[in-house]
Write a structure and sequence with these properties.
With 199 residues, this protein is of the alpha/beta class. 43% of the residues lie in helices and 19% in strands. The protein contains 8 helices and 7 strands, in the order βαβααββααβαβαβα. Strands 1, 2, 3, 4, 5, 6 and 7 form a 7-stranded mixed β-sheet that branches. Strand 1, helix 1 and strand 2 form a beta-alpha-beta unit. Helix 1 packs across helix 8. The protein is globular.
Amino acid sequence: MTKLSIIYYSATGHGTAMAQRLAKAAEAAGAEVRVRHIAETRDPATFAENPAWTANYEATKNLPAATGDDIVWADAVIFGSPTRFASTAAPFQTFIDSLGGLWAQGKLADKVYAAYTSSQTAHGGQETTLTALYTSLMHFGGILVPPGYTDPLKFADGNPYGVSHVTGPNNQNELNDATLAALDHMATRVVTTAAKLAN
């Protein structure tokens, strides 16, 4: 059974919802799945006036937080981070930067990797966020398995690099059908490819 870790940071909850959808699809594809959030690094008082951020923090703060061991355990990893100024969010990047010891031991290599993101606007840096993240995963010696245009449904969401969601200016946009289908496809593709490599 393929072991998949979904490791993500989410502020206002879209990344959490995307992680949950990926997990459901991966389990349907036969994987054993760990979903791990990257712990919030900001004082909750600093976002107390943001209801979505506060709600996501309260919903996830007592769940298991991601560690490097979740990558070591896995055959495949799907990372998620919101887009911040065309790159990953600071808590996510701090987590990546903490993996140097495992990288030096070669424990991050030869695993299948893919990623997802979200941003407030359609041109908010989603593609640069994903490609920059993949650069780090190349340093790991990872096997990148982006969805590409491997299914006609990818022409609906239009993102060959991973999966991305536009949250809207007030974070009100829920995941639409095209995004949900893209998440299902990416999870299935990652699990299937990891299983082929294992064989």
